Amino acid sequence: MALWGGRFSQGADSRFKQFNDSLRFDYRLAEQDIQGSMAWARALVKVGVLTAAEQGKLQQAMEVLLASVQQDPQQILSSDAEDIHSWVETQLIAAVGDLGKKLHTGRSRNDQVATDLKLWCKAQGELLAASITALQQGLVASARANQAAVLPGYTHLQRAQPVTYAHWALAYVEMLERDYSRLQDALKRLDTSPLGCGALAGTAYAIDREALALDMGFSGATRNSLDSVSDRDHVVELMHVASLSMAHLSRFAEDLIFYNTGEAGFVELSDAVTSGSSLMPQKKNPDALELIRGKTGRVVGAQMGMLMSLKALPLAYNKDMQEDKEGLFDALDTWHDCLDMAALVLID
What we know:
This is Argininosuccinate lyase. GO terms for molecular function: argininosuccinate lyase activity. The chain is mostly helical and 348 residues long. The protein is built from 13 helices and four strands. It folds into two domains: 14-102, Fumarase C, Chain B, domain 1 (Orthogonal Bundle); 109-199 and 225-345, Fumarase C, Chain A, domain 2 (Up-down Bundle).
């Protein structure tokens, strides 16, 4: 089901529908779409669009839907809905009848998806911050366990002065601390709600957007509706934080790949994070570290792609912005996986 179509006399070509639909990736915003819809329903009561009884009925249905999605998010993909917003509305209509259609009153998918994506970024940011901290703790523990170990320090990849292993490990703690700080800065800047901005010029209802923002856990509401529905700075910022952190992880990986070589022999990587050769049984390949190094280009490439998608876009919303999600999801997933894998590499 599409949330539009009033002026159209025929359906979309199946090839266009496949090209245009976003459910195959924006299904990951299901929880956020439902959470935002719960808050919107409460706001609609305050302006007289919904009665308290109607809101209660919708709330109950959305709670059931949220629990179902949390248990099995993949169920969404069996639908032919255009996007996650259409899917949620379809499910609500099935649960509560035409009352489900009233929920979209005064709201556009433009402010809805912008809100969903910010809520998702906030949640992912917490997970990423925790993974950065865990890797820092792993580096400190490894440094503490090997305080007496000495290895060559390098400049120009030439042996320069002796340093301790602990000093080397703590250098990456500092890099990760800057990554953590940049992540917190980005999360602080994105912590404003665009809900209530409509398609581009606000809504006809006297929605208290500040109260609505606080209800969803934001620090406040955005100020300009044109900017709010077309702002993807937070997407680029998070991708940049991920790219720079991945550059740090790539350096970490390269150091350990070299230190693990037969020529250097400073460290030996665990069997748990290495693989062997089908032809040469003496080999112990640092696959985990090589993949961290290789995936860095993937994350940086996603950031560059997003910047090019945004370049020269006129105000306000354009369908180009649908390209924000796949790159962002993949970049942050990859960064998260690499942070966790780097921590695993440090375990004896």
